[in-house]
Amino acid sequence: MNLPKIHSISKKICVALLGGFLLIFILLHASANMLVLRHDDGAWYSAFCHFMGTNYIVKVFEIILLGFIALHICFTAWLWITNRLARPVRYHQPGRSKTHPGSKLMMWTGILIFAFLVMHFCQFYFVKLGWVKGEYMVKVEKLQDEEMMQMMQMANQMNITPEELINQIESSASEYTDANGDAAETDEYIAGLRDKLSVMTLVQHAYEEGNFSEDRQWIRHLTYDDRQMLRRVMPESDPEPDFYFMVRQLFHNPVMVLLYLITFVALFLHMRHALPSAFQTLGLSNYKYGKAIDILGQIYAWVVCLMFVAVPILVYLGL
Predict the structure, then answer these.
(1) CA angle, 216 as apex, 212 and 217 as ends, to 5°?
(2) One-character DSSP codes across 111-170
């Protein structure tokens, strides 16, 4: 196997810098997850997700973050492969070294974390991209259409349903078309009315089922088909994934809670070694404060991972 010739220390520096960036991001991510535990029907968490999903600066940062994750994985794997190739014949007698156990497990915990990321992206990030189906919500104000309101008022005045009103309009339009032509335009108009009827039916169903946020600003529990219909009929409505409900639903499953907890243990072992290792690689550690950096790494890993662990456990317990 022929790999590009880059000095080992250069690859280690790249891994350390990329890892340092990811360590900062993961703290922010853990902090945002804690909003799920607020008993506000997801108001704060949904607002945070809305900001993250609509702000253009965040979208650019998202691409950079994904690039950094990919580079961190590639450089780490590259470094591991080149180290293995440098000594194809292993030691007959495994010697005792002072290497921290976390260092020896870095590759394996990294593989486990990568597998978790694929699952996590399928459960949440790919839902936002529309690649995977999920639960959605839409702002009520974005479904307020003047033509829809007029149709509902007219149907109420005539004491008939909106669908019956559209059938009457279609019948009258057909008679007009038979006499004057222009059937294509009439069909397009009736199709538009039936699309609006689909939106009205959706809103009516939400009222009947009580699928609203506590502040009545969002219609929740929309399906993927509902989202596609709204994006086609009312593109400005822009339905969003209901991540709060999806998180709460996910962590009512004990199997998923267990999988997440196993991953957080792997993340702890990975982070436990990552911070001191990054300082050492970048030449920022020495005998004077090396111990302090090691303790800082432990505290950082414990704080972040406990924040992550708290969400699935407390949601599963109904708190």
Answers:
(1) 100
(2) HHHHHHHHHHIIIIIHHHHTSS---EEEEGGGG--HHHHHHHHHHHHHTS-HHHHHHHHH
| Helix and strand totals (H; E) in the chain | 12, 3
Q: What is the pLDDT of residues 200-252, one digit of tens each?
A: 888 888 888 888 888 888 999 999 999 998 988 888 888 999 999 999 999 99
Q: Is residue 240 classed as helix, strand or coil in its secondary structure?
A: strand
Return the pLDDT at 256: 95
* Count of CB atoms situated within 10 Å of the CB of 70: 11
Residue 199 makes CB contacts below 8 A (sequence gap 6+) with: 143, 145, 148, 229, 230, 233, 234
Outline where DSSP puts E strands in the chain.
Answer: 136-139, 218-222, 240-241
34 pLDDT more than 90 = yes
Specify the pTM. 0.76
Q: Is 264 exposed, middle or buried (0-12, 13-18, 19+ CB in 10 A)?
A: buried
Q: How far, in Å, CA of 265 to CA of 111, rounded?
A: 13
Q: Cα separation of 270 and 236, whole Å?
A: 43
* CA-based nearest residue to 142, from 223, 188, 54, 203: 203
Statement: residue 305 has pLDDT above 70: yes
The backbone region for 243, taken as left when phi is positive above 0, alpha when psi lies in -120 to 50, beta otherwise, is: alpha
CA-based end-to-end distance of the chain: 53
CB 281 within 8 A of CB 108: no
- The tokens for 82 are 């080149």
**CA nearest 106: which of 268, 243, 232?**
268
Please tell me the distance from the alpha carbon of residue 71 to that of residue 15, in angstroms, as a whole number: 8
Reply yes or no on whether the pLDDT at 107 is more than 60: yes
